[in-house]
Amino acid sequence: QVQLEESGGGLVQPGGSLRLSCAASGSISSINAMAWYRQAPGKQRELVAGLFSGGRTNYADSVKGRFTISRSNTKNTVYLQMDSLKPEDTAVYYCNIASRFRSYWGQGTQVTVSS
Fold it and tell me: Is residue 50 within 8 Å of 33, Cβ to Cβ?
């Protein structure tokens, strides 16, 4: 009965900021990793940011220094802080949580960066 609900997407001008949230309902045991992916029209889905045990993170080269992945103290929400946004960041963003047995996906939230 696990569901991931995403929010925070929208329209923003270049150089602006958005904060995406992904809230998990239901019980997820032994979370191994949390991550954000994105997919633009005509493009493959790509890994944007990952968060691992011990607070280790990794980012796509295209977003390093601009995006930050984090997790709430309640451990049921993962965030993606996006700063200095560029038009090429326009995509549908999906959160993902990986457990011992399977991974779970959010429904996606649209981010559009345009003047």
Answer: yes
Exposed/middle/buried for 8, CB within 10 Å: 0-12, 13-18, 19+?
Answer: middle
The residue-averaged pLDDT of 90-113 equals: 95
The average pLDDT across 9-20 equals 98
Query: How many C-beta neighbours within 10 Å does residue 94 have?
Result: 21
**CB 109, CB 7: distance < 8 Å:** yes
Q: How far apart are CA 65 and CA 91, in angstroms?
A: 19
Listing DSSP states for 28-60 in one string gives: --S--EEEEEEE-TTS--EEEEEEEGGG-EEE-
- CA–CA separation, 110 vs 44, rounded Å? 16
